[in-house]
């Protein structure tokens, strides 16, 4: 028995080899730097500091809403449940590397013969056998690393799922911020429409008074009515849009949002979003959650190749059981009743009609697929960051131009109204000025939204505050070392 136990312990400590191909992180199929051509992109390249969402979204109300969404959103809860599933699957797979020690006890009663059966009366009746055993019924010696490769694949799948949760969390923060800004924008547009309705109503009353006084034609009245009708139609549409925006925000949050936390206007919140430092090397993309998820999926596929290769080699199992057996429960544990058994077994695949070779080819195909998806993910991430940086490089100038346009349109309307009252210009000039100002004010609001959204997009494309949550393991880390640090 002592020899059997020692053999089990020795087998558990054997440094198994592995059939996995050596993993080296593929070189990203993207340029080493961002496209040149704007002041933002000409900054000194350095590593990006970790930035939390509270450092970017400085509006306290928005911070409360984001925190509420992170606690209540059902999609995020589902993603977290998938992490728990992946963690459990990894632990189950890793447990196969080690012996499973079981303790069992039982009692068996059997008939040993009766009258007329040819058995003597002294031996007739029933007999009960008692047993108590401890041991491993079938421990596989992982000499070729198949189980370790499967364990490494399960671990990398777990890390990929965990990175997926961070991607979901980052997307949720971005979606909540975007929905918040959309609501703020539509409230600003609603205020502009309401203000235009008031101004157009006043202009219509003045025009009607001039018509009644015989100094203005009826066409002036009808033209003034068109401005009022358009503004009123926009106002009613925006009232519904504001309600829909709130519904969309509360769907993301997963709970009602307090009226006190709702934005008043885009003007009140766009300055509360800070810029993320943009001077960085493009290799920062390797720390994005979606890129990490794709890399861990690639590593898992690489480990699966090792498991498929190891399946071509013999499988060696060890059985060792020790215990006691007796026909009397009171004397079960006497030294004379001790029993033990131990024995290895081996199986070598001879013919399987190409099943193992098919598994290996499929594993290699999955690796190539994961490699293509990994490179595609990096390329998509590069484009998103480059697009966000390009937008940031021009949005401030565009916003300044929109501010000048709005100021000029407002001044033009003031002058046109004065010239119309003095009979210098026709009402058509005032009508054009009213419409120009209305459009300019709406465009300025849209520019504010675009400026704020560009900051949200840049924060999201760079990985946000998810950058520090996962650190990719080195390419040379072995399966055993990976398992040692696993949960």
What does the model show?
It contains eleven helices and four strands, in the order ααααββααααββααα. It has helices spanning 2-12, 53-56, 60-72, 74-95, 146-212, 218-253, 266-269, 289-310, 355-421, 427-461, 479-484; strands spanning 102-111, 126-141, 315-326, 338-347. It has one domain: Outer membrane efflux proteins (OEP) (Up-down Bundle). The model is unreliable at 36-48 and 466-487 (pLDDT under 50).
Gyration radius over CA: 37 Å
Top-tier CATH class: Mainly Alpha
Mean pLDDT: 77
| Termini gap | 34 Å
Shape: elongated
Largest β-sheet summary: 4 strands, antiparallel
Low-confidence stretches: 36-48, 466-487
Helix content: 55-70%
Strand order of the largest sheet: 1-2-3-4
SSE ordering = HHHHEEHHHHEEHHH
Q: Might you state the CATH topology name?
A: Outer membrane efflux proteins (OEP)
Binned strand content? 5-15%
Number of domains: 1
What is the tally of helical segments?
11
CATH architecture: Up-down Bundle
CATH superfamily: Outer membrane efflux proteins (OEP)
Structural class: alpha+beta
Q: How many beta-strand runs? A: 4
Search tags:
about 475 residues, Outer membrane efflux proteins (OEP), about 60% helix, OMP_efflux
List the topology elements.
Layout: H1 2-12, H2 53-56, H3 60-72, H4 74-95, E1 102-111, E2 126-141, H5 146-212, H6 218-253, H7 266-269, H8 289-310, E3 315-326, E4 338-347, H9 355-421, H10 427-461, H11 479-484
Antiparallel strand pairs: 1-2, 2-3, 3-4
Helix pairs in contact: 3-5, 4-5, 5-6, 5-8, 5-10, 6-10, 8-9, 9-10
């Amino acid at each position: 028995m002592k020899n059997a136990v020692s053999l089990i312990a020795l087998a558990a400590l054997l440094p198994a080899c592995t059939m996995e191909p050596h993993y080296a992180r593929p070189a990203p199929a993207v340029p080493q730097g961002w496209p040149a051509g704007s002041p933002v992109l000409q900054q000194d390249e350095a590593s990006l500091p970790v930035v939390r969402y509270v450092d970017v979204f400085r509006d306290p109300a928005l911070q409360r809403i984001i925190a509420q969404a992170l606690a209540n959103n059902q999609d995020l809860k589902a993603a977290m449940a998938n992490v728990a599933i992946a963690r459990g699957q990894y632990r189950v797979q890793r447990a196969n590397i080690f012996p499973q020690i079981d303790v069992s006890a039982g009692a068996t009663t059997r008939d040993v013969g009766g009258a007329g059966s040819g058995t003597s009366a002294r031996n007739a009746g029933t007999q009960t056998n008692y047993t108590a055993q401890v041991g491993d019924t079938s421990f596989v010696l992982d000499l070729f690393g198949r189980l370790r490769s499967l364990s490494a694949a399960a671990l990398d799948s777990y890390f990929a799922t965990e990175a997926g949760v961070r991607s979901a969390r980052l997307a949720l923060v971005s979606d909540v911020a975007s929905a918040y800004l959309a609501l703020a924008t539509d409230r600003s547009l609603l205020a502009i429409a309401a203000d235009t309705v008031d101004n157009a109503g006043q202009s219509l009353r003045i025009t009607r008074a001039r018509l009644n006084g015989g100094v203005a034609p009826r066409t002036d009245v009808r033209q003034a009515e068109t401005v009022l009708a358009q503004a009123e139609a926009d106002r009613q549409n925006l009232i519904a849009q504001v309600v829909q925006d709130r519904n969309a925000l509360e769907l993301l949050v997963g709970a009602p949002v307090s009226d006190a936390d709702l934005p008043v206007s885009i003007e009140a919140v766009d300055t509360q979003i800070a810029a993320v430092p943009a001077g960085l090397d493009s290799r920062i993309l390797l720390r994005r959650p979606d890129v990490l998820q794709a890399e861990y999926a690639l590593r898992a596929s690489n480990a699966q190749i090792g498991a498929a290769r190891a399946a071509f080699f013999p499988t060696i199992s060890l059985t060792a059981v020790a215990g006691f057996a007796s026909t009397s429960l009171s004397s079960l544990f006497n030294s004379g009743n001790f029993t033990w058994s131990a024995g290895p077994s081996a199986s070598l695949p001879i013919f399987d009609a190409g099943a193992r070779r098919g598994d290996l080819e499929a594993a290699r195909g999955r690796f190539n697929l994961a490699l293509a998806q990994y490179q595609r993910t990096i390329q998509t991430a590069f484009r998103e960051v480059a697009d966000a940086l390009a937008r940031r490089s021009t949005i401030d100038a565009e916003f300044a131009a929109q501010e000048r346009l709005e100021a000029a349109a407002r001044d033009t309307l003031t002058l046109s109204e004065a010239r119309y009252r003095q009979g210098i210009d026709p009402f058509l000039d005032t009508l054009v000025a009213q419409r120009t100002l209305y459009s300019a004010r709406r465009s300025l609001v849209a520019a504010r939204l675009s400026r704020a959204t560009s900051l949200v997009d840049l924060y999201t494309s760079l990985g946000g505050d998810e950058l520090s949550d996962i650190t990719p393991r080195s390419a040379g880390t072995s399966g055993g070392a990976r398992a040692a640090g696993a949960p």
